[in-house]
Design a protein that fits this description.
By secondary structure, the protein is of the alpha+beta class. The chain is 23% helix and 28% strand. The chain is built from 4 helices and 7 strands, in the order H-H-H-H-E-E-E-E-E-E-E. Strands 1, 2, 3, 4, 5, 6 and 7 form a 7-stranded antiparallel sheet that branches. The longest helix is centred in the first third of the chain and has 13 residues. The radius of gyration is 23 Å and the shape is flat. This is Dirigent protein.
Length: 189
């Protein structure tokens, strides 16, 4: 398990605790698989049904995980999506034929690829701190809703080289909207 940063011994110890009562079988399985350096097969075996997936089992699993120190970061950035002009940052890559003539700004079924600047202020000449790179698509037929899947790639400041991955539904005309941060790298790992 070098790619996941888990040693074979630690993986086995953790999994043995999770399947109490199966220790003789687990010991034999462990010897067979780890003698070949195959801790991935050992973990895959347990993924196939030997771990308690009940709410209680999941709660126990979370309690046994090593917990990282919680970090809180706040910042405010402005995303400028330029869909036309000399240097657009949002390009339509697909659209549904039956909705292409509707007056909506982004009709149902339209897919847009973005590489938008994220800047510190609302003015277009504000300092660029990051880029929003990814896609959004219009997936609401009854209201203007975008499904957004993109990364904030930080290009300057203390977070330079780090990323945040965002995914979620953006009901454009709602005053307050939230997108899930589903991952990150560097400072946000």
């Amino acid at each position: 398990m070098p790619n996941a940063g888990i040693s074979t011994k630690n993986a086995y110890s953790y999994l043995r605790e999770e399947v109490a009562g199966h220790e003789n079988y687990v010991n034999n399985l462990k010897m067979t698989m780890t003698s070949a350096g195959d801790s991935q097969s050992l973990l895959n075996y347990f993924k196939l049904g030997c771990i308690d997936e009940s709410p209680e089992g999941v709660a126990k699993w979370f309690q046994n995980l090593g917990h990282r120190k919680e970090k809180l970061t706040t910042f405010k950035l402005y995303l400028h999506d330029q869909v036309s002009g000399k240097n657009p940052t949002a390009i339509v890559v697909a659209r549904a034929n039956f909705t292409s003539k509707t007056p909506a700004p982004i009709p149902f079924g339209k897919i847009v690829v973005i590489d938008d600047p994220l800047i510190v202020g609302p003015e277009l000449n504000s300092t660029v701190m990051a880029r929003a790179q990814g896609i959004y698509l219009s997936d609401g037929q009854e209201e203007f809703v975008l499904n957004m899947n993109f990364n904030f790639v930080f290009t300057s400041g203390k977070n330079k080289g780090s990323t945040l991955s965002l995914f979620g539904q953006n009901p454009v005309f709602h005053q307050y909207r939230e997108l899930s941060i589903v991952g990150g790298t560097g400072f946000f790992d």
